[in-house]
Amino acid sequence: MARKFHQRHVPHPARKARSGSRSKPLALVLGILVVLFGAGYLVQINIASSKGYQIRSLENQISELKEQRARLELKVAQEQSVQAVETKVQAMGMVPTPKVDYVAVTAPTVAQR
């Protein structure tokens, strides 16, 4: 009876080292890319949230200015009312004139050369 020898497959050491050396730089590059994309994402989220805060702040400021404008317009209307003017006239000691005389202006005389 003849014995059959089976060969065990032993990987070539150079081939094994070559595949390991390729995967390490690839893993390193992928790791660096993940870190860079993560940092970029965080920067964008931070910028977006700060812009949102600025927008809300400016909207609140606009609202306050509109309210202030409405109050000022109301105050102007009250100060221009007939009652307010009459009260101020009396406070300044002015009196109504009984008769108003108007001066008639004739055509203006202009000197010519």
Q: Any idea what the radius of gyration is? A: 46 Å
User: What is the structural class?
Assistant: mainly alpha
Instruction: Characterize the largest beta sheet: strand count, sense, and whether it forms a barrel.
Output: none
Q: How many helices?
A: 2
Mean pLDDT: 85
Strand content: under 5%
Q: Helical percent range?
A: 55-70%
- Name the overall outline: rod-shaped
Helix and strand string, N-terminal first?
HH
Low-confidence region ranges: none
Number of strands: 0
Assembly type of the chains comes to single chain
- Termini separation (Å)? 151 Å
Give an overview of the whole structure.
The structure is a single chain. The radius of gyration is 46 Å and the shape is rod-shaped. It has a domain at 15-91. It has two helices and no strands. It has 113 residues and is mainly alpha-helical. The mean pLDDT is 85. It starts with 12 loop residues before the first helix and ends in a 22-residue tail after the last helix. The protein has helices spanning 13-79, 82-91.
Can you tag this structure with a few keywords?
113 residues; mainly alpha
